[in-house]
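Dear colleagues,

As part of the handover before I leave the project, I'm documenting each prediction I ran so the next person doesn't have to rerun anything. This entry is a single chain, and its sequence is reproduced below.
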Amino acid sequence: MIRGLYASGVGMKTNLNRMDVISNNLANVDTAGFKRETPVQRSFSEELMRAVGGPNYAVHGVMRVGPARLGSFVDEVHVDFSPGGLRQVSGSLSLAIDGEGFFAISMTDRNGEATERFTRNGAFTLDQNRQLRTMEGHLVLGTGGGGITLPDGEIEISESGAVLVRTVDPATQEMVLQQAGTIRMVNFENLQTLRQFGDNAFSSTEESVQTDFTGRLLSGYLENSNINPVREMVEMIAIQRAYEANQRVLSIADTTLQRAVNDIARR
């Protein structure tokens, strides 16, 4: 009975954690470049209610119940890196990656230290110093390791990430095309070595191995999230029903325990 209480409680907590992940997916269905998250549950590490052999298999000739765990729980959150669809938007600073790869950006922590992170969200803008940044204010890195500062003029971005600006030559008064920098693009051998960091960005780990970017950039496009709202809603309904089932089991176990204490103990 006590074990049933704990198992049901763990099941309810697990479904709450699953609901948090699904809710986050639905909240980011319109976020450019967002990747769907899936909760991964760890099941019983040993077979439930079964003797496993050895000297404790039987006590005085009576079969004993083997070790049991208190249910499954969310062990980690898996990220689905499959690409989302592309949508055409206005503005040359809206970029989408056709193929595998990430934009390299610089994010500052609480101690003021800048660290390289990676994102698929190519919705960029210019700050007051005309530096290329994400909508959250993070610096977009160039191949030289620093930011990219753009002069006044018409901006063009090539498929390889070269940032070009059409400006007027003050000497000849003719339009010239100059390169202000190149956006740093990277890829990884195993995307599952990346870890979510926040602001739709990922951080690399010791196991992450960077490889050359082989895709191309599309200016005037953004990548949609790879979330299917209908699938997420169906999953949310299933989680809600599982939560309610655990809740009913917990209530039954509690009622049974109450009867055992109040009624059976009197006899």
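The first strand starts at residue 37 and ends at 42. The first helix runs from residue 2 to 27.

All the best with the project,
I.
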